[in-house]
Amino acid sequence: MFENLDALVLARFQFAFTVSFHIIFPAFSIGLASYLAVLQGLWLWTKKEVYIELFDFWKTIFALAFGMGVVSGIVMSYQFGTNWSVFSDKAGPVIGPLMGYEVLSAFFLEAGFLGVMLFGRHRVGPRLHFFATLMVAFGTLMSATWILAVNSWMQTPQGFGMNEAGQFVPEDWWAIIFNPSFPYRLVHMVLAAYLTTALVVGAVGALHLLRHTSPLRAGTMFSMAMWMLTIVAPLQILAGDMHGLNTLEHQPTKVMAMEGHYESHPDGGPLILFGIPNPDENRVDYAIEIPKLSSLILKHDLNAPLPGLDTVPEELHPPVPIVFWSFRIMILLGFSMLGLGLWSLWCRRRGTFYQSDGLHRAALVMGPAGFIAVLAGWVTTEVGRQPFTVYGHLLTADSVSPISAPAVGSSLVAFIIVYFLVFGAGTFYILRLISRLPRDPLGDLDEGPIRTAGITPAPHLARKQEYDHHGN
């Protein structure tokens, strides 16, 4: 059934499929590890039990997400040998050590302290347990740093030479690691992970506020998530703008595809809000655009000239429709996150933050938005780099293994079946866990005094006063 298909297309689709499954788990676990560290730090500082209760609730979910991220990541590394052996041979002297450093430093750090974080709170003492949680959080950030260094070098390669075998060989490791796009990609990805986690935590809190279950725990996590969203969303938009300017400098063809600029604009380029890219005719049909705004954003000058894809050989064009739409999905979701954060801030000022069902429903709907935005961002980055694996130096068509289409297609079908079964079951179990937030030990706060034998109303009222104080 795959004999008439292109092995290169199937290999690219297989890697895109596996990396899309993989990236959603690190994007969640990076932010969640830091959230666990914050919760435990607040518990040590304030002695409020709600923080350690939330820690215990989220650490199980973190363990599941972390495990699925590790398993899905291992599968991708094997594809470098099966489907992309030529790329591995040519770029291995550069990317191999960097990926090895990620395992030896970040992954070993995470794995070494993960067991202490998950099972050692009553065995090693609170301060050592907090240190273990910090090390797990630091390890996730280190892992992102090494992986982003590898990917950024493939986007903006420098610090290398070529040997007689046609391999990339390192000449300056500092230049390789700290390549021109690395700082922008690292900041953009880490902030995206924090936003993804904030949206999930906020959605869980909103769900239980709407259900009126465990209001102290739900209100605490919802408040923390919305503060994170309010602060980080504008920072992410700023970081994204700076990343875009860096991409314009080093990968202008990608920006042309993102903007839908098939033609050059010598007197200022328009910002195309929406339209249907037509690569056959090299234009955007039914375009809704704002004149010269793209020049203002990219060059800070309304009349600045912007080159188009007509200045680039057609065989070097990326797939414009995919890049065009994935970029707009990412931008739309980014501004939706900003809007949700501002709405929550407005509700805080009005004193309706914990009572606004509209805000809670919006937060619940936005729960998956971080994952979608991360996927859209990675599609923009990776598809926009085409037709290169190492930008400007190694074509994707020259990187694939000498394999047949039926072989790649068969493994692709196997991946799809196994991934949906295994990771689908894991994701379903996580959703079951987050839908069952334990009730507050003394019941719902609005049910009135507890009259269970041996418990007077006084502790319950004190707990309600603590919640009211926390809410205000």
UniProtKB/TrEMBL annotation:
Question: What is the protein's major site of localization?
Answer: membrane
Give UniProt keywords alphabetically.
Answer: Cell membrane, Electron transport, Heme, Iron, Membrane, Metal-binding, Oxidoreductase, Transmembrane, Transmembrane helix, Transport
Please report the record's description of how this protein sits within the membrane: Multi-pass membrane protein
Q: What is its EC number?
A: 1.10.3.-
The reply on keyword Transit peptide is no
InterPro entries (alphabetical): Cyt-d_ubiquinol_oxidase_su_1
Q: Name one GO molecular function term.
A: oxidoreductase activity
What residue ranges are annotated as transmembrane?
20-45, 57-78, 98-119, 131-154, 186-210, 222-239, 322-346, 358-379, 412-431
A Pfam short name: Cyt_bd_oxida_I
Task: Kindly list any coiled-coil regions of this protein.
Answer: none
Subcellular locations according to the entry: Cell inner membrane; Cell membrane
- UniProt record similarity statement: Belongs to the cytochrome ubiquinol oxidase subunit 1 family.
What's the protein name?
Answer: Cytochrome d ubiquinol oxidase subunit I
Organism of origin is: Pseudorhizobium tarimense
